[in-house]
Each structure stands twice: as C-alpha cells, then as structure tokens.
Sequence to fold (286 residues):
Amino acid sequence: MNKKLDLKSLLESKMSNIEPAENAKSAIERAEMKIPHNLMFDTESTEFKPETKPVTASVARGLTVEEAKAFDDEMNRFIDAVLVAGSDYFGIPHLGHPTLLKAGAEKILNYLGLIARTEVVNRIEDYNTGFFCYECKVFLIDYNGVVKGEGIGITNTRERKYAKSDGYSIQNVVLKMAKKRALVDAALNVGNLSARFTQDVEDMNIEPEHPVERNIEELRASAKPRRDKPATQKQIQYLETLMGQHNTSSEAMNKYVKEHYDVEDYKKITGVQASALIEKFKAIES
Fold:
C-alpha cells in the first residue's frame, strides 16, 4: 500500500529542534494552509493525483467578452515581446502557423503562473523486440492547486524519425519526447494559442499528404512480433554458439528442424523457432 507524505509531521520533527515546539506547530499549521494537497506526490510511486472539485456556477461562467479580449491582447503582447524566433518557435514552410517549441511553452507557463506536472498514463516496453511507446499527460496547476489545463503526448520507436535507430538506445529519448509533446499541447490549450501556433513538430516527421494517427492500442498490437519473421543474424549466431557448447553438429540441427518445423536449413528458421531452440539449450544448462 502506498504511503502519503505527512508534511506536517516531517516539519514538526525538523523544526522542534530549532524553536519551541508550540511556536513550530503554529508555524507549520500556517504553512500547511497554503500548500495545495494536489501538489503533493505519493511517497512511493511519485504519481501526481489532481484533486477533483465540484464546478460551481461562478467557475462555470468563464470570462466576459471584455475579459477574454484583454486576455488575448496580453498573451499576444507577451508573445511578441518575449518569445524569440528560432529558439522559442519557428516556422515550417507547409504549415500555416509557426511551431511552438518547448522553450516557448515553458516561458508561456511561467508567465501564466502555472506549474506542469507530468504523468505517464500508458506505456509499452517490449524488451524482446526493442519497441517502446509512451503516452504522457501534463497537468497545469496554479499556486492554489487548481488544474487550469491539460495536454497529451505520445511517442514510439517506430516513428519515421526513430525507425532506423536501435530501440533500446533511444528508449529515454522517446519518453522525453512524449513529455515534451504533452507540455506543448497543454501550453497551447491553456493559452488559447491555436490561432498563433501549431503543435511542437521540431522532432516529428510531418507528412501532410499521408497523415497517419494511431492510438496506443493499435501500437500495442503492432508491437507483437510476427511468428513468421525470419530469425535475426544475432539469434542464429547465438544458437550456433550453444550448438558448439553442446557438441551439436549442423547436420544434427538440420535434422531436428526438418522433423519439427519442416525446414531444411536451421539458418532459415523463424525468430520464434530460434527462440524456442535457444530456450531448449538453456534448459539443458540449468
């Protein structure tokens, strides 16, 4: 069972050593009143859990026309005065709006007085095939702990940019990219900036002629290895190493795969079949 961080008890234990206990308690109580509970994390999982509050009529009302116009005017003034082309945003020839980058998104959130909290809401980590996929959600919260906006981002190792890379070596890269996309998405949402910017695509391969959108369940299904996919060179080499350790000749292995898999040459077996043979040799060793 996860344990909640008891901030009050922790502060009492620390502050009692430097001032009278009664004074420490009153100081802690004053500080505790100012700390939103949904800024706290679970001590074991560090999972951010935003509080849900009932929507009142005053909250649901939103902005007046004058307030909305003032907000847009101030945001535009901030963007024009503070954000730097090339580092905070840049233009893409075939897109109608500049692309908002992570640096620009962070400046916008700082200007709005919002804190970003990221949670990995879904993940695929297939260490057998080297396929990794992460879906992240960013919550934007103000000092009072009220969630002001959210954003979603997803990245996987089969995207065109990463397809030629070793999935194992870029696992952290795709995780960070998912977080980054979620952050930019949240900034665009909370700032009503779709008219000024598009989503962060500095590291995404855009193909407007053939758009492809796949949800995480589709990616999870595609991560399953095909049973008829040929064995890799590394699998065959490892299999041959085990064959040598157990004095198994090529002729004997060919005879075995012919009887069990109806394959003439063991070097032409599938990846699933190679894995099964490797496991058989390992079982002998154990």
